[in-house]
């Protein structure tokens, strides 16, 4: 017997969904029944089913999978409550522009046994709400009800077509229990809508007005060529790995400095001589280059600067290019604006190719300028000084036994340990998941990532991403030497470690977790100081007094993971008072890396720093 659920699952597999992250409920009997039918008839399910004891963890694991593969995964949750329980992960896949297909069942609509699947449990009445999709609609690219198994393939293909077109993002489907129990004929089950008839929208190019020299690409290229002090700001261009060498080429060609503002992916190799670092705009100036830049090119950035802190010069020419949503209307940002001469909706790779072609055409007549040569020298020197500063911070260990290590100390040890112990003897085949929050910039800069896709963040603002995302990234099958989650202690708890590490054990997805333990939530404290630098809160004796601290009895984070995995995870706390702190961290990090590489187990290292 085949049901609408049979058609639904077959359609997912036919559409290329290889992994389904599932949290089951009373709305899913027909799905569970059909999965067992698949095992009975074929020995396995068409898509791999990942059991997830928490919905936020399920969606986050799907996000990590999609971020690494570029392909959507599916998530199955339970009616309205499971939809709500995905929580902040919904925000992250929206803001991170991550393609994910979410399906939730819904309470039965029949109550007298009229149809198979009618209400037969008390919970089904209290879980029936008027508009279930409204819970998530403002975060979704598309929502739809599946009203019959006969149309399930078309609904799924349309949803995935939208999810994988710019601006990419999540889609939400739902259906009543009776519909998913609907019996279908074999012909309906075997009917297949050709996936190639549902292609993603082709990448958009910069507009052309006649010849190349009159196009928007030419306008941008000529502005960069004529600029005395150009600047490129990017946040997410590296989500498309092909953009990384193109951006480096443009920067090389005209000696343009690059600053990454609130990045979610590697925009350019850390060693590039014109890359000047990362900012997360936390009450600080953006870059010395922003205020003096006469031309600013903004590439795939939600927040290139904070106008109240440091905007560009009022006479600067600003050009904005975004892959699919330059006005932030599809991703539904509220108030948003950039003073700009030109706003462009274009695929970042196609746009960079167009700008480079326009630069080539213009340089045939104008040639290189003395300004470009001078910038090459100045920027190379500035980059070298920045690297020396990073080195100095990493090597500035405390001199007394009571001193605490710093985050740069530990990140330097971690990077060198990876370089010494991984098969590639480098970070070339290591994936860093950065959820350091107030330490976002430090992780980006001190891990010194060189390859496209080598370091990622959630792309959103909801904490608790990195643990489950590491699980999903491992399932992507990219054969990394090592996957490393670097996470603050607050974000570690937001990440539902009891669920994340259970899944890691169940499906054997070993990764290293470095917990940056500063004893609480530093970000709210910094926000308070940004508004009230000399207020009452600035004189609070501790984070605990301010109600943002976790002390004096902080959780033993590594042992939470050990317990969740029934002892499979290796865990250790390091950084207490006394002893040679440098040697202590070097030994502990080396052992943690060894456990993951050789024993193929997760390792969690709780690194204790000075408490907030």
From TrEMBL:
Top-level division of the source organism's lineage: Eukaryota
A family per Pfam: TPP_enzyme_M
Q: What keywords is this UniProt entry annotated with?
A: Mitochondrion, Thiamine pyrophosphate
MF terms in GO: acetolactate synthase activity; flavin adenine dinucleotide binding; magnesium ion binding; thiamine pyrophosphate binding
Q: What Gene Ontology cellular-component terms does the record carry? A: acetolactate synthase complex; mitochondrion
Localisation per UniProt entry: Mitochondrion
Residue ranges of every copy of the Thiamine pyrophosphate enzyme TPP-binding domain listed in the record: 443-606
* Record-annotated Thiamine pyrophosphate enzyme central domain positions: 219-310
GO biological process terms, semicolon-separated: isoleucine biosynthetic process; L-valine biosynthetic process
rRNA processing as a keyword?
Answer: no
Where would I find the Thiamine pyrophosphate enzyme N-terminal TPP-binding domain in this sequence?
Answer: 3-119
What PANTHER family does the annotation carry?
PYRUVATE DECARBOXYLASE, THIAMINE PYROPHOSPHATE ENZYMES
Q: What family does the Swiss-Prot or TrEMBL record give for this protein?
A: Belongs to the TPP enzyme family.
What this protein is called in its record is Thiamine pyrophosphate enzyme, N-terminal TPP binding domain-containing protein
